[in-house]
């Protein structure tokens, strides 16, 4: 049973472990795929939000540019300063604002504390803005005052489309106001790591402000986002573990928003699912374990019974025990059939060997060993047993004169005649070459004497050697009786032998009776 139960439990454990691991990997793959979809959706949402911010900024600058154009044409510059202060104070969209002519001269600025009015701009970035003559968002750069900024501009034109300059505003990327604060509000989500980078791979937004302005040098990340508007890839999270990330390119600025769920959050979700699976599967697992134990018990029960019977195949009654085993499945039925056949054959062989061990092969009678064992079985059942000792007269002469074959034939015929003269319950034995011994349970000495005399007479009147009629076979007999509960069998046999000896000395072919002396019987008892 233990082996069957062990195999069953091992199979169950391997199956459950395989199922659990398979489910784990499938669920992990599904969670990663789901994370990619969520990342992509979140990135798209943020992209729309950023584009809306720049669209609103464009609308504000466009409206102001139309108002400012007429004032520039009239040469009245005072309203320019008022318009910049209005936008700066009401929208809070920009950290600072300027109006620049087509020649690069700042003709209005807000806040006035910057003292920018009258300065002529000659930098490459300014020249690029002048050349663009459209709504333009610059690449991030460090200003003269040390602020990391981007500059948003909108062209100013007269009624016929002549370029007059531009109106623009700066946004401090490392400031907690304006765009950065806007991004913190929109991008703040503990479940996601969000990065905003420009076309050159420079970080524009990161919740760790210390990362802003740094370039991404990871070739895998750069190659994954190059020349694509959106997509997904694996990148290290803040703990350095590869996690799924999605990106999308904004339409207005061309910035790339990367959204990533940390591996830790995915791992927590996966662990929650697996714990839930274990909790839900445990009751069924316990029931399965119980069912396996019960099934193993009933599978092993007939095997255990057959094994027990196989260990005692030589005992009496084992065949009936084997037949009583309930073989409820084919393998046990076949094993039972084979074991039963083997046991029957074994018992037949044991019986044959036992018979050979207890039987004289020439006469077919019990030998001395068989007589002693049979005597032990009946000793307690009788208070008197008669003993008859028989010896063939002049048997040596028969062997010497006519050969051993004739002698053996005489023994066989005499054995048959002896068996005919006694009961089936009597123990008929050949204990020597020409010596026989008969035990008569329950017969007193008078009955035994009559039977012995009858046997002697029958033998004397029977022809044993038809070819040698001149030689008649006779027997001498000694008779005694003893109480098996008081006297030993050896004493009784010795007494019968003494009587037999007297019969031979008295002329042979006669029956002599001798009683056990009370002294000997008592001494033996």
TrEMBL record:
EC identifiers of the protein: 2.7.7.65
SUPFAM superfamilies (alphabetical): Nucleotide cyclase, Sensory domain-like
Molecular function, one GO term: diguanylate cyclase activity
The topology of this chain with respect to the membrane is:
Multi-pass membrane protein
GO cellular component assignments: plasma membrane
Q: Pathway of this protein?
A: Purine metabolism; 3',5'-cyclic di-GMP biosynthesis
Q: Which residues form the GGDEF domain?
A: 383-516
Question: InterPro entries, alphabetically?
Answer: dCache_1, Diguanylate_Cyclase, GGDEF_dom, Nucleotide_cyclase, Rev_trsase/Diguanyl_cyclase, Sensor-like_sf
Tell me, in one coarse class, where this protein mainly resides.
membrane
Cofactor names: Mg(2+)
Q: Which reaction(s) are listed as its catalytic activity?
A: 2 GTP = 3',3'-c-di-GMP + 2 diphosphate
Q: Which UniProt keywords apply?
A: Cell membrane, Membrane, Transmembrane, Transmembrane helix
Q: Which residues cross the membrane?
A: 281-300
Cell compartment(s), UniProt: Cell membrane
Q: What is this protein called?
A: diguanylate cyclase
